[in-house]
Specification:
With 158 residues, this protein is mostly helical. It has 7 helices and 2 strands, in the order H-H-H-H-E-E-H-H-H. The chain has a two-stranded antiparallel sheet with strand order 1-2. It comes from Metamycoplasma salivarium.
Length: 158
């Protein structure tokens, strides 16, 4: 493992956040199924939090008896608002659970990587252009050594 690879693995929280975000954006079906199960199992808690705590505070702020009674231009938005808040809470909880899973996974990978011997970065093989340039330089040096000084002097003046 090189220093550069170890440095990449060092940023555990950032990598965990990025991987959890990728799962949500990519739509990995297995991970989404796990999230659905977690969301369903905590549905009662989320419903109670949304309806009894958050929606009660909103109802109190609007001075209405219940959120279901909130009407805007004849449209009852109270129930929709409750469902929207429940969705946001579930989505946030699923994302935090994924973040925790990837945080643990990346921490384990980083600890394993730190235990490995750090190898120096491999020296890249020279490209064909670099080899050709080196050969031309050698030929030029040999040309200057074996050619008479008058010819090399004329050549350099032109």
């Amino acid at each position: 493992m090189t220093e550069k690879e170890l440095e990449k693995k060092k940023h555990i929280v950032r990598r965990s956040y990025d991987e959890a975000k990728k799962v949500v954006v990519k739509g990995n079906m297995f991970m989404l199924a796990i999230g659905l199960l977690i969301g369903a199992s905590f549905g009662a808690v989320v419903t109670s939090l949304a309806n009894d705590v958050i929606m009660a505070a909103i109802a109190k702020a609007f001075h209405v008896q219940g959120v279901e009674n909130i009407v805007v231009n004849g449209i009852y938005i109270g129930k929709f608002l409750g469902a929207l808040i429940q969705f946001i809470i579930v989505a946030l909880f699923i994302f935090l659970a994924l973040l925790l899973v990837y945080l643990i996974k990346n921490t384990i990978e980083y600890v394993k990587a730190r235990k490995q011997k750090i190898e120096p970065e491999p020296i890249p093989e020279p490209t064909i252009e670099e080899l050709t340039l080196a050969e031309l330089k050698k030929l030029n040096e040999n040309f200057k050594k074996f050619m008479p000084k008058e010819i090399t002097k004329e050549h350099s003046e032109k």
